[in-house]
Write a structure and sequence with these properties.
Strand order of the largest sheet: 1-2-3-4-6-8-9-10-11-12-14-13
Number of helices: 14
Number of strands: 14
Shape: elongated
Oligomer: single chain
Distance between the termini: 64 Å
Radius of gyration: 26 Å
Structural class: alpha/beta
Helix content: 25-40%
Largest sheet: 12 strands, mixed
Length: 365
């Protein structure tokens, strides 16, 4: 009868427990299994044990308990970690984490995925300085609290954030202008999302992103348009990898000709998604020239031009454009050239705006 004294679950190998525990949060694991017996204590403290955790739903009391009791036991074995709260009116979790408790992110030495929700602009430099030590990072997603941002706010990104040896995917929603002039080293990033930056900053970054295949960005304005125009031609063909084949841009306050200069440099594009907000982008002939001379490999297109009524003239400030203009543009976007590419145009008109969309029947971007 003695052979029945031991639970069958304890006959499982350590690897089986690693697989099971991998699906549970560290808090639940330590609350449930730690202290039951020596076997479970040994498994939970095994250097091979890896953890994933998300603190965004913890209330202040739970957060305090986690930082004091759980995190010190697993900090060097976490491979995925998320902290920060979406509702910043409750409490500033990122500020508590980085400043009150002074948790050193560089101690997360096996981390592969790091997500920080609603930090302040001042926190960005703290995070960047720690990232150089996280050599296993593959994914990064950061956002800045909009309450910490005004019209003069800047977020300066340097080599520390983008040049990790294994870093492949980065998403930055900074709610403020993001600058990249301090980037001087090549990165291995393949997928990048930015909100928001200026055109010359984006093109500077592209020159140091030879592995980039997918880019999503919100772009607003150009500081020195004349200098940018002189330097953009040919610069991306020689420095930017041909791997960039999927581009998604939200454009505000940038002339059509400047956007065309950028797109002419990205001849390898296969998928293009654009959200535009100016009447001059309705020039179907300019788009046709772009697709016939430069973007000849493009097959997936989603082009949306959204205008608020009344429409203002590009050439004569204060002069209204005829209401029929978007309808004429829609007709031109439905010519033989566009049909042969498999692209169709439609016009949706509302009380206060008009939206012209040109796209594939099914857009896969």
């Amino acid at each position: 009868m003695e052979k029945y004294n031991h639970s069958k679950i304890e006959t499982f190998s350590d690897e089986v427990f690693f697989e099971i525990f991998d699906r549970l949060s560290p808090s639940d694991l330590y609350k449930t299994f730690y202290g039951l017996n020596i076997r479970f204590n040994t498994i939970l403290n095994d250097s091979r044990m890896r953890f994933r955790d998300n603190l965004s739903s913890l209330n202040p009391k739970q957060f305090h308990s986690y930082v004091q009791n759980i995190l010190p036991q697993i900090i060097d074995r976490l491979i995925s970690f998320t902290f920060g709260t979406y509702d910043t009116d409750e409490y500033q979790q990122v500020n508590l984490f980085l400043n009150k408790y002074s948790i050193d992110l560089s101690l997360f030495k096996h981390l592969r995925t790091l997500v920080i929700i609603k930090m302040t602009i001042a926190d960005v430099s703290i995070v960047q300085s720690a990232l150089v030590h996280l050599i296993h990072l593959v994914n990064i997603r950061f956002s800045v609290d909009s309450n910490d941002v005004d019209t003069t706010s800047f977020v300066h990104i340097g080599n520390e954030l983008l040049t990790g040896p294994k870093l492949k995917r980065v998403k930055m929603d900074m709610c403020a202008r993001t600058t990249f002039e301090h980037i001087t080293k090549l990165s291995s990033i393949e997928q990048l999302s930015i909100v928001w930056c200026q055109m010359q900053e984006l093109t500077h970054l592209l020159q140091y992103s030879p592995c980039l295949s997918t880019l999503k960005a919100t772009i607003c304005g150009i500081n020195d348009a004349d200098l940018w125009t002189q330097t953009i031609r040919g610069s991306l063909n020689t420095k930017c990898s041909l791997r960039l084949n999927s581009l998604k841009l939200v454009i505000d306050s940038i002339r059509f000709d400047y956007l065309l200069l950028l797109l002419h440099e990205l001849k390898q594009l296969r998928s293009l998604w654009l959200l535009l907000n100016h009447h001059e982008y309705m020039d179907a002939e300019k788009w046709e020239n772009l697709f016939q001379t430069s973007l000849i490999q493009l097959d997936q297109l989603d082009l949306t031009i959204a205008l608020t009524k009344p429409f203002l003239s590009v050439n004569t400030p204060g002069q209204l454009v005829m209401l029929s203009t978007p309808h004429i543009a829609c007709t031109k976007f439905n010519s033989k050239f566009w049909f042969n590419r498999g692209w169709r145009a439609k016009l949706d008109e509302y009380d206060h705006c008009v939206r012209l969309t040109v796209s594939n029947h099914t857009v896969l971007i």
